């Protein structure tokens, strides 16, 4: 454990609203229940979702995971609650493990690129959403954290365009926006409308990472289209076909690997079948990441422990192999990030 704790690690694939530490979620849920919002927007689904998270229930598959995000979003729909959520997520990942931080760091990372999808709510615009998250990142961890702005596959073209424009604008204003992401329900949306936006993002100097081929239902045509944007990194990339894998290997595109997430969503049936093996065997860049610590009940330490633990519980890597993997993550940060 000491080896993993002291290993310099980065977190490159963590969704803000999926990474809220449970104690804060409980506080937010309690406060939400007595807020005016609860009277107007509380639905049984939201209450049920929060209760499941509080109970630490396991999720059955990817549909089940996606059903719980509206509940979390209801709790972070004001600038004040979003600021607290961002602060707690940063503390979780960055505070030294020995400190008695309120929201408990398990093993800190040296650097985090946190991602989130800006939402317009009755209490804030998308711009205020992003400014709130950025204010917290810049105040707490100016050298150790940066923001990736997520575009959700379910966004209308107009909203996606607006979100990209915000990312570009905030970066030009000198804010710590380092990239954009494509996330959201893998079965939704027509990616043709997004491709131009990711090309613009690259031309503007933003890093691009795309959730791709996350489920068996994602078509090879879609993956090809997304790869045509030449993203620097890919999220999951579980079901890439042989041709797409060749492209990824040739370009040395970093694959963000979220082991527990893939097992929990059942997009990978067992650890020994995970596509990480394909990339490890070829010394191809990967970044070990958590995805959503809240529903998946994992931590960066837990993800690295899966690499090191003997088979069949883990992948049985040696310490020096794990060190090499951690270095790959470090080298896969979006440029223009660390000072
Ligand atoms: P947020 O962007 O609100 O901070 O974080 C939650 C959002 O991240 C979810 O609504 C969803 O769009 C996205 N997300 C979280 N986990 C996953 C995942 O495993 N796959 C995909 N495609 N999107 C995810």
Automatic annotation (TrEMBL):
What cofactor does its activity depend on?
Answer: Zn(2+)
The chain positions of domain Adenosine deaminase read 8-334
User: What keywords were assigned to this record?
Assistant: Hydrolase, Metal-binding, Nucleotide metabolism, Zinc
UniProt-recorded Gene Ontology molecular function terms: adenosine deaminase activity; metal ion binding
Protein's UniProt keywords contain Transferase: no
- Provide the reaction this enzyme catalyses: N(6)-methyl-AMP + H2O + H(+) = IMP + methylamine
Q: Which InterPro entries match?
A: A_deaminase_dom, Ado/ade_deaminase, Metal_Hydrolase
Give GO terms for biological process: adenosine catabolic process; inosine biosynthetic process; nucleotide metabolic process
Which protein family is it in? Belongs to the metallo-dependent hydrolases superfamily. Adenosine and AMP deaminases family.
Q: What is this protein called?
A: Adenosine deaminase-like protein
């Amino acid at each position: 454990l000491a080896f993993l704790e002291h290993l310099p690690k980065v977190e490159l694939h963590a969704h803000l609203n999926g990474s809220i530490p449970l104690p804060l979620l409980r506080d937010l849920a309690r406060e939400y229940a007595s807020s005016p919002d609860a009277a107007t927007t509380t639905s049984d689904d939201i209450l049920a979702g929060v209760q499941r998270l509080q109970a630490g229930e396991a999720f059955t598959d990817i549909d089940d995971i996606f059903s719980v995000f509206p509940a979390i979003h209801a709790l972070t729909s004001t600038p004040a609650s979003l600021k607290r959520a961002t602060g707690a997520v940063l503390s979780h990942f960055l505070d030294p493990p020995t400190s008695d931080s309120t929201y408990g760091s398990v093993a800190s990372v040296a650097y985090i690129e946190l991602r989130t999808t800006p939402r317009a709510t009755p209490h804030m615009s998308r711009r205020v959403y992003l400014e709130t998250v950025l204010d917290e990142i810049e105040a707490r961890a100016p050298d150790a954290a940066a923001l990736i702005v997520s575009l959700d596959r379910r966004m209308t073209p107009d909203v996606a365009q607006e979100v990209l424009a915000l990312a570009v604008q905030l970066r030009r204003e000198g804010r710590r926006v380092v990239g954009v992401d494509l996330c959201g329900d893998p079965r939704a949306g027509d990616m043709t409308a997004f491709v131009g936006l990711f090309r613009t993002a690259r031309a503007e100097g933003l890093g691009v990472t795309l959730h791709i081929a996350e489920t068996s239902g994602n078509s090879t045509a879609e993956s090809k289209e997304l790869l045509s944007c030449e993203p620097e990194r890919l999220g999951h990339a579980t079901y890439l076909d042989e041709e797409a894998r060749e492209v990824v290997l040739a370009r040395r595109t970093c694959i963000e690997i979220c082991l527990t997430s893939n097992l929990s969503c059942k997009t990978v049936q067992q650890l020994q079948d995970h596509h990480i093996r394909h990339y490890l065997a070829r010394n191809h860049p990967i970044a070990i990441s958590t995805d959503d610590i809240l529903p998946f009940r994992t931590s960066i330490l837990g993800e690295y422990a899966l690499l090191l633990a003997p088979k069949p519980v883990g992948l049985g890597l040696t310490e020096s192999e794990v060190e090499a993997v951690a270095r790959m993550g470090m080298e896969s940060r979006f440029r223009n990030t660390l000072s």
